[in-house]
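Revision sheet: structure tokens.
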Amino acid sequence: MSLDFILPNPLLSLFRGKMSSISSIPAADPQVSKILSIIAAYRHRSQNVPDRFSKFLPQLEKQLDKIVAKGDPVEFILPAFPFKAPAEGKKSKTLGQLPDKAEEIALNTLDGLADSIADIYKPGANVLIVSDASVYGDLLQVSDADAYEYQSELRNLASSLDLKHLKFVRAGTLAGAVSRDAQTLEQYSAQVRKTRRELDTTFAEEVDANRDENIKATSKHYDTALPTKQDPAAFKAEMLKRGKVGALD
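Predicted:
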């Protein structure tokens, strides 16, 4: 499940990552209702994009019904934090290549989501962050060394903040392309190449930029957000294709 997050109470979210108040969402199971309400409170809202949470609510409720009936922890899978974005158009977006306050706030908020669920649901919750450069790194010309250092520091940051509900895994490990996460840069580079070959040969296909609302929004975002290239249309098409491949991990 891919989720975007806002900070409805910036100071509280910065230091604890948890919401100060949550509105109730009805469901057949009271426990599921509470979990749905927490997820809804953490969802991304934008003045420019319609809120489609209600559209996915029935399916989400079914998934949670099964999880709660089994007494399993709630686990979110979030493809995110591959590396610092190199540029937006011709503008640099970051001051450096390593995690900073932005990642600290984001990780605290993700942990706050899971911790809020754990407060009301004994089996608890976790966020599994799928993070590496195998999907976009070569296209955006981010070196394996920069990506590996970023991801190592990201995990160190989560550990230093004592964020107990966050777990990290790389795409290749999750997809079964490699048996375990790399422990050195050399291992990482080899695994990224293997993962990229595996995903490209198994899942890669052209993407219709007008197929659905999500792809349309991503395509529109890429019009201004991607680094400048000689053939912007071809570059965007390759990014969309890789994005679909990454979503199948």
